[in-house]
Amino acid sequence: MYSIRDRLLWTFFGALILAGIAATYMTFISARAEVDRFLDTELQQIAVSLGTHIDREMPPVMASPSDEQGIVIQVHNKTTLKRESSRTTTDFFPIQSETGFSNVLFSGQVWRIYCFHANNEWVIVTAQPTNNRVKLAFSSALHILQPLALLLPFLIIAVWLLVSQGLASLNRTAKIVSTRSPTSIEPIPTKGLPREILQLVDALNTLLGKLKDSLEAQKRFASDAAHELRTPLTALKLQVQLAERAKTPEAQLKAFARLHAGIDRATGLVQQLLIIARLDPDAHKKPFVEVALDRVINSVADELAVLAQQKDICLEVNTVSAQTQGMEDALKLLVTNLTDNAIRYTQPGGRIAISLKVESNQAVIRVSDNGPGIRPEERERVFDRFYRALGTKTQGHGLGLAIVKRIVEIHQGKISVEDGLDGKGTTMKITLPTHT
């Protein structure tokens, strides 16, 4: 685990060091160029000044005014081959054929020389070691950088204070979060937070809001499930007591038959509760595959055709080829629940129509019947868990349409209730995005 504060400080300090090295190098290069220009001019002025006053006699060559800079002056007579040097030496610089500057390796070091041909007789050479120029340039660069070096500690302190102050709001926010109660899901205060931390806090508040909604939904679900399970479990207990008290084999068999029916109803309720529990948490994160909706609908119709025939219900299927991205088992459960509902609530001799069309690049599934239908004021509530329309005599748990709605939401679709067949009954319309 690393610290943002330490990483920022080390990054700033590293940047300052690199900037200082770069500034030193660039200042040295600039100072070296200026020193070279200045000393080249000095070498040239010395040579030209001496050359303008020379006569036929060899002039006495004295140390130059800049002798502390290591400048050496040498005079050559091309006619008499006499030569003099400002430095006691038996070595003389090579004479260039033309007036000008050059760098030569002489006596084990590099020299910057200026060769001046005064006339056809005299040649004046001024020279200086290049390492003297480097020392002078380095000294000049240090003088330039000295004020910056003095400011560096203050700059480091300023950076440290700025980073500490910038992270103070993050530390305060972290302290607020750490001291909150585990049961508290209220939004974190955002007043006075900088923009960068505000984005993080807003994201946390959004997550807390979703968590709050999820917890409330789970509480409602647990409460409703407990309420719905209480009745069948009580009925099962009564059926067991009746079976124990039965005095004849016929009465006992009848009690056991009712007990088995009650167990089947309770098992069906538990199964539907488990389906909803599996669909609720992070169902949208499950991998989607390409699903052929027409194949799913035809498969469900084949499975439920026997139930429809038992009630003398005409089951019609009309589909076109359509694909969507989703979970095939969930989509099959969706069509199964809608069709099973239609069969259970449609009177004997009725009619059910299942259709699949593609409209405006969307797959539209309709399950229609000519049964008793759903009153307009109840059409929105039929998707609530455990809700059953008033006057319904068919046994059920009120979870089938809640499961259907959740599956539709997972697949980013829409569901609505419309009028059914022959001017009565109900049509469940499902709209899903297509995949081509």
What does this structure look like?
- The protein is an alpha+beta fold and 436 residues long.
- It contains 7 helices and 12 strands.
- The strands form 3 sheets. A 5-stranded antiparallel β-sheet has the order 2-1-5-4-3.
- It starts with a helix and ends with a strand.
- The model is unreliable at 393-397 (pLDDT under 50).
Helix and strand topology:
Layout: H1 4-52, E1 72-77, E2 83-85, E3 100-106, E4 109-117, E5 122-129, H2 130-178, H3 195-245, H4 249-279, E6 289-292, H5 293-310, E7 314-319, E8 323-326, H6 328-345, E9 351-359, E10 362-369, H7 400-410, E11 414-419, E12 426-433
Parallel strand pairs: 7-9
Antiparallel strand pairs: 1-2, 1-5, 3-4, 4-5, 6-8, 9-10, 10-12, 11-12
Helix pairs in contact: 1-2, 3-4, 4-7, 5-6, 6-7
Tell me the structural class: alpha+beta
The secondary-structure element order is: HEEEEEHHHEHEEHEEHEE
Q: Please give the count of helices.
A: 7
Strand order of the largest sheet: 2-1-5-4-3
Percent strand: 15-25%
Radius of gyration: 49 Å
Largest sheet features: 5 strands, antiparallel
Alpha carbon gap, first and last residue: 47 Å
Mean pLDDT: 78
Short description:
The protein is of the alpha+beta class. Helix content is 52%, strand content 18%.
List keywords for this structure.
436 residues, alpha+beta, 5-stranded antiparallel sheet, 5-stranded mixed sheet, elongated
